[in-house]
């Protein structure tokens, strides 16, 4: 009796200590989710566009200069999802198209379907030739769970359980603005729809896509806001950015983001068992652009690697020499943040404590639900 009690207390103590450590330490050597599935554009693409006839590619030096080699990431180093995966206890998630030849001999930690130039709308990014739109990324995910994953699980229930515990990271919409709405010569959207009307159209399209993801088994989803596109060197070079960020472009993004936050709330209450977290990347990047000193940053309006005004007229070219002090720049090239900024964003949202950037809970807390 006494022995049993002692034994029980010891077990309880061990469980408490390790349970606590597991929740408190983001870099704990265990997984809070079995897998992460990523849907997105060039901010999260880690090589998919190398496998399709895309113009939007970054498989050349100096891309990857702080990663080791040009992997296809549109950055000097790691992206937000690379850091995020690590913080969830996962390895770097492989680009789905690199595995096409492997048949069913695939891993179970998830896939990255993101494709540079892709958008919520199928037509977005057409000016960059091939890209995998959100609808096409969902088709690849459907193929993954119908053809590639079933042989790895004992039963359909086990597969469904794995899918419901996995993390789904959806970072889409930037190109629906910079490679659609803000290109009136190539796309009619801005002549047909007001900023509010266009945002409504994007959100209703995305809503259908997310319901499809839910019906395929997803439960833990992160909806990533669009960053302050009016601050990127490419936009600064097109409009005179002398006085800082282009406010009318940031306004368009905020109209979309406020509806995206609302969508996360609506779907969480309408889809039984689903939790959607809104990750406010706009807030994080804007904070860095407005208060660079707080982060040890010094250059907020010029690309580390790029050409012309603000380094944003022509983006980083093959073999171009980038800035040496990359941790001082917000932007790596005409469109994308530096690895440093990506790490700040990940640190602010993937931790297991509450986050000022995430609603209603942090990505780390979502993982542990
Ligand atoms: C992110 O968090 C890690 C772990 O606490 C820390 O080592 C790193 O310096 C942080 N990175 C940035 C850019 O703030």
Q: Into which percentage range does the β-strand content fall?
A: 5-15%
Distance N terminus to C terminus?
36 Å
Q: What fraction, in percent, of the residue positions are helical?
A: 25-40%
Residue-averaged pLDDT: 91
- Helix- and strand-based class? alpha/beta
C-alpha-based Rg, rounded: 21 Å
Protein name: GDSL esterase/lipase
Subcellular location: Secreted
Pfam families: Lipase_GDSL
Keywords: Hydrolase, Lipid degradation, Lipid metabolism, Secreted, Signal
Tell me about this structure.
There is one protein chain. This protein is of the alpha/beta class and 369 residues long. It has one domain: SGNH hydrolase (Rossmann fold), CATH 3.40.50. Helices cover 40% and strands 7% of the residues. The protein has helices spanning 2-24, 80-87, 134-148, 156-165, 174-181, 189-192, 195-215, 233-238, 247-270, 281-290, 339-349, 363-368, and strands at residues 36-40, 167-171, 220-224, 275-279, 306-307, 314-315, 358-359. Strands 1-2-3-4-7 form a five-stranded mixed β-sheet. The chain has a two-stranded antiparallel sheet with strand order 5-6. A hairpin with a 6-residue loop joins strand 5 and strand 6 (314-315). Helix 2 packs across helix 11 (339-349) and helix 10 packs across helix 11. Residues 1-29 have low confidence and may be disordered. Bound molecules: 2-acetamido-2-deoxy-beta-D-glucopyranose. Residues 340, 343-344, 347 line the site of 2-acetamido-2-deoxy-beta-D-glucopyranose.
